[in-house]
Specification:
mainly alpha, 4 helices, 2 strands, two-stranded parallel sheet
Length: about 100
Amino acid sequence: MGKRNDAHAKRQAIIDGMLADALRPAYSYRLPSHDALAADIRRAIDELLAKAEAQRSRCLTYEDLEEALPPRDVSAEDLEAIFWILAEHGIEVEDGEAG
């Protein structure tokens, strides 16, 4: 029985390590810093937050997002940060009419 328990413990340690590795990037990026973003991305976020507040809405459209984005190529990391920060404020971006 000792070998069986050792094998189980080793498998569990591997599984625990894999889970920790899988969660680590998401956890470390969970709260992107508004201040660490490029100035034009910060302005876009501020514009989106102001629009949602003015509309008293928790939902913006992809058209709203496109209008707020700077006229340069925006990286996937910038977009991810925008979505995270909006989500922290309870705002979603969806297709269709803002509501």
